[in-house]
Amino acid sequence: MRHKNNTRILPSEITPREHYYDRRRFMQLAAGASIASLLPGPLWAADKLEASPNKAYQLAEEKTPYKDVTGYNNFYEFGTGKGDPAQYAHTLKTRPWTVTVEGEVHKPKTFAIEELLKLAAMEERVYRLRCVEAWSMVIPWIGYPLSELVKQVEPTGNAKFVEFITLDDPMQMPGQRSTVLEWPYNEGLRMDEAMHPLTLLTFGLYGEMLPNQNGAPIRIVVPWKYGFKSAKSIVKIRFTEHQPVSAWMKAGPSEYGFYSNVNPEVDHARWSQAKERRIGDFFKRPTLPFNGYADQVAGLYSGMDLQKYF
Ligand code: MTE
After folding, report:
1. Ligand 1 atom 11 nearest Cα
2. Is residue 110 part of a domain?
3. Is 32 helix (H, G, I), strand (E, B) or coil?
4. What does each of the 310 residues of the chain score in pLDDT, given as a tens digit?
5. Would you say 187 and 229 are in contact if contact means Cβ atoms under 8 Å apart?
6. Atom of ligand 1 nearest to the CA of 215
7. Ligand 1 pocket residue status of 276, Cβ below 6 Å
8. What's the CATH number where 247 sits?
9. Residue 167 CA, ligand 1 centroid: distance in Å
10. Structural domain total, the chain
11. Cα of 154 from ligand 1 centre, angstroms
12. CB atoms inside a 10 Å sphere around CB 99
């Protein structure tokens, strides 16, 4: 359809496409730099997230390529296929975002994500992630120990467990319209596990903010446990006296226990856990007790029957 009164735009008035994009990019960088320079915490511009590598938590193992870390995911809120999260998680809105910390604490508080990003120094830590489905990856995560946040809210003497609760919004998370799990996704840790220095409150990976499919804007990573313990896109952290019942425990109590420590000697109800396939490798490799972190965490479970508390 043509309109009579269309004003003609001269070709000379149109900004060439490449200049337009250059200008937009310049403005984005300038905005990012000026905001970042006002903040005492980490520097970030656009989706970058800077952090210093923590030398105590590096691995002499090849890192899983970025495209696999961000393209092969479990995030049932966006579908059960490994490629679904990368394809559909763009509908998740990660700003504004708050995390409410409640329950058995002296100082309950709702934190804005911006506050959490500044709460402690960002570290880059390379951790293995071992999924219950017998595959694994090696990922450079960015975050700080969960204990930094726990200290801020001062748990009461009754706080024995910590529960992590994911966003519940089927408009943003279309996978929640399915009944594959009871929503919202939740997970939990015992207090000493939550306070362990390995437990990372995570905001980024590979030098950038978490992509949506990896649990933006905030998740936890618990490297000695099966991957499903590492809840994504957290909106609530609740301190409790009693052991929480996780979404996976509700879905299959004989298949998913509360502890879920990586254990080659305890089979999953439907498959062995003795080996795993590192994404990108052809041959399988033996699974290590506590995913290779036994020297750091085995002591948390001394005297416990890990066949029973799987
Ligand atoms: N968190 C939420 N909210 N929903 C999920 O479906 N899947 C878990 C865990 N966290 C999941 C979740 C599982 S099974 C794994 S293996 C890891 O996320 C995968 O993390 P990654 O995709 O960043 O590698």
Report:
1. 75
2. yes
3. helix
4. 434 344 344 444 444 333 433 344 444 444 444 444 444 444 444 599 999 999 999 999 999 999 999 999 999 999 999 999 999 999 999 999 999 999 999 999 999 999 999 999 999 999 999 999 999 999 999 999 999 999 999 999 999 999 999 999 999 999 999 999 999 999 999 999 999 999 999 999 999 999 999 999 999 999 999 999 999 999 999 999 999 999 999 999 999 999 999 999 999 999 999 999 999 999 999 999 999 999 999 999 999 999 999 9
5. yes
6. 23
7. no
8. 3.90.420.10
9. 13
10. 1
11. 28
12. 21
